[in-house]
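ENTRY TYPE: paired fold submission
RECORD: A
CONTENT: sequence, then structure tokens
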Amino acid sequence: MTDHNRSSQSAGMKWCLVFVLICVLCLNTGCQALLATFLLMTGGMETKAKYKFFKGKKVVVVCLAENMTNSRYDDVPRDLANNVGVHLSQNVKKIEIISPTTVNKWLDRRDGKIEDFQQFGKDMQADMVLAIYLDSFETSSPSSPGSYQGRAGTSFTVYEVKTGNAIASESLLEYVYPPNFRHMASEVRESDFKKRYLFQLSRVISCFFYSHDHRQNLAMDAHSELMR
């Protein structure tokens, strides 16, 4: 082994040790901001798309929340669907997202219910339907009154309009954001927090359909921590 190779190997081992030490330090102290900054500066963490069938397709995104009864969140299903559509249009090549206005008009004429997803997709002139189910949604922390920590139970199913078949399905169970702390109501307006939480939740859902970098999620957590 040459001196150059020994030097390169030694440097690589040192960087590995530094990485491990910083991760341990950040996990023990709860300093997500430092960890996110370090990861952003050192290499990629790309995760491949789990589902790749949206490329070049016309997709209609809809969110249903039949089990939700809190009128404070009546706007959440449509906002979530809109955000998911934006993420997909920005990250999936040649995808065409059906206009949310068109979707909402169709829903308003049918009391917000969809009995047949294949017919719904045909009415939208889409190739595929991304149906998101929002079972629960809350911005207030149940264990700490006067603070915000988003919680939502969601799942989704993808329908192929041509056949009417469900070709993909996932459940996120309860998604909590931020995961490790709460925002005090005195520090941020609920409307602003809800907007931020919906952006992050919609990104988690849409990431199933395009390659993405895990560092972005860490950076979002770090940003939320710094905003406390």
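RECORD: B
CONTENT: sequence, then structure tokens
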Amino acid sequence: MEIKDFLYQAISEYGEKRILSDIAQGESPVTINAIFDHCTPDLEKVGKNNPEIVGSLAEGLTHYMLTVALIPSQRKTVLESVDIDIAVPDVKTLSSSPENVIIISFPKTREINKIKELISKLKKIQPKTENIWLVVDEPVSVEAKVYTLDRNEFTFANMINDLINFSSNAKQSKLKIFRI
């Protein structure tokens, strides 16, 4: 089985209606924890300690959660020769109003120099470092908001709630279209 198969099996067993209900009630961390817990035994078989594997699971789950909650986002795009994993709401807004955009990146490495290099590139297109969000498998101290996948410090579970809070406070009307 591939990572996406583990993920979609966990999502299916948890249930989309339950996921929507959790998101609507501000309980997306419950959903994210449950799905990660469900996938953990399968991840251990394919290399749980591999940041690329855990990062791919987190990225897939993020894409799914953004879609199911109807949070506008643009994925796997490029702006000014900088690769962007996810821009919320989109790159067009990033060009005109960077304060209203979150860039989410999944470095899938533990090499701090590579992570800092990525942040440096992202800062060229997103000058507000608090709007650069990294999802990494272990805690790092960098100039960006960091969500960790380490099960002892699993801050990634809060990311969807944080995005909803950011979006509800943003001036961009594009950000205020939610299914919930």
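NOTES ON RECORD B: The longest helix spans residues 28-46. Residues 3-176 form one domain.
STATUS: closed
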